[in-house]
Specification:
About 70% of the residues lie in helices and about 0% in strands. The protein has about 280 residues and is an all-alpha fold.
Length: about 280
C-alpha cells in the first residue's frame, strides 16, 4: 500500500509538471452540467471570445454530422440549433482535438479515434435505454483521458505497451503499472481531480475497466461496454488477442432496438462519423 501511494505521489508530480493543460473552454463547459437557459448563455459567452475555438465549433455545426439545412454562421445560432447539451458535446470534442493538436503520433491518433468511437457508441446505447445520451457521449469522449496523457507525455513507453498487446484490457492495466507505476484509470482520476471536474466523470474515468454494474444500463456501465465495443470494432489502441463479440457486449446493456446488431455496419457508420469530425 505504501509503495502504491509513493508511485501515485511521483505521478502527481509528473502530471503537474509535464502534462499540458486541457483547453480552459472545454473544462468550463464540462463544469456546466445543468442544461438550463442560463448555462447555454454561459457556454456561448465562453466560446465566442475565442476566435479559433468558435471557428472549430462552427465547422462541426455546419458538417453533415449535424445536417442542419441552413448555414450556421454564429455561435449563438449554433447554440439555438444544437441546444445546450449537444453544444457542450461539440465543445468537448473540439477541446480534445485541440488538446492533441501537433502531437498526433500513431498512438495518439488511435487514442483519439477510440475516444470518439466510444463516445458515439455510448450515445447510441444511452438513447436506446432512455438515458442522457449527451452526457454518455461526453463521458465516452473523456473516459481514456489518462491514457491520452500517458501516450502524449511518455510516447516511447506507451509504444512498448501498444506493441506487446494484451489478452484482455485488464492485462493492459498491469503492463501500464509495470512501466509507469500507474495505470491509465488511476492517471485519469488524478487528472479529473486536478481539473476539478464533476464527480460523475471521476467514477467513469477511474472505473471503466471494472466491468458492468448489476443494472447494466447506467452511464458508467454504458461507457464500459462502449469501450469494449470500440476495441472489438477496430477502434482499439492496443491489439487485444481475445476480443469479445459485439453481440455479447451489447447484450449487457439492455434495449438494443436502435443499435446495429451487425458489427461491420456499426464500424462503418462510426468510421464515417469520425471522418466527418476529422475533416470538419
Amino acid at each position: 500500500m505504501a509503495t502504491e501511494s509513493k508511485a501515485l505521489g511521483k505521478v502527481e508530480v509528473w502530471l503537474s509538471k509535464d502534462v499540458p493543460p486541457f483547453p480552459a473552454i472545454a473544462l468550463k463547459a464540462l463544469n456546466l452540467m445543468a442544461g438550463t437557459d442560463t448555462s447555454l448563455l454561459q457556454l456561448c459567452n465562453l466560446i465566442r471570445p475565442d476566435a479559433a475555438f468558435s471557428a472549430e465549433v462552427l465547422r462541426i455545426a455546419n458538417s453533415p454530422l449535424v445536417a442542419f439545412p441552413k448555414n450556421i454562421t454564429s455561435v449563438l445560432q449554433a447554440s439555438m440549433v444544437l441546444g445546450f447539451r449537444r453544444l457542450r458535446s461539440v465543445v468537448i470534442t473540439v477541446g480534445l482535438r485541440a488538446y492533441l493538436a501537433g502531437t498526433f503520433t500513431p498512438a495518439l491518433h488511435s487514442c483519439w479515434r477510440h475516444s470518439l468511437a466510444c463516445g458515439m457508441i455510448a450515445e447510441r446505447i444511452a438513447a436506446a435505454n432512455s438515458r442522457d445520451k449527451d452526457f454518455a457521449y461526453t463521458a465516452g469522449i473523456l473516459h481514456d483521458v489518462g491514457r491520452i496523457v500517458m501516450a502524449m507525455s511518455l510516447p516511447d513507453l506507451y509504444r512498448q505497451i501498444a506493441i506487446q498487446g494484451a489478452d484482455h484490457p485488464r492485462q493492459l492495466l498491469h503492463a501500464e503499472r509495470a512501466l509507469y507505476g500507474i495505470d491509465h484509470c488511476q492517471a485519469g482520476a488524478l487528472l479529473v481531480k486536478s481539473w476539478h471536474l464533476p464527480e460523475a466523470f471521476l467514477q467513469i474515468v477511474a472505473h471503466h475497466h471494472d466491468g458492468h454494474s448489476q443494472t447494466g444500463n447506467d452511464v458508467a456501465s454504458i461507457v464500459a461496454a462502449s469501450c469494449q465495443l470500440a476495441d472489438t470494432l477496430g477502434f482499439g489502441i492496443v491489439r487485444c488477442v481475445k476480443p469479445l463479440s459485439s453481440t455479447d457486449i451489447l447484450s449487457s446493456v439492455g434495449n438494443l432496438r436502435t443499435i446495429h446488431a451487425d458489427g461491420e455496419d456499426l464500424a462503418s457508420e462510426l468510421a464515417r462519423e469520425i471522418q466527418l469530425i476529422e475533416s470538419a
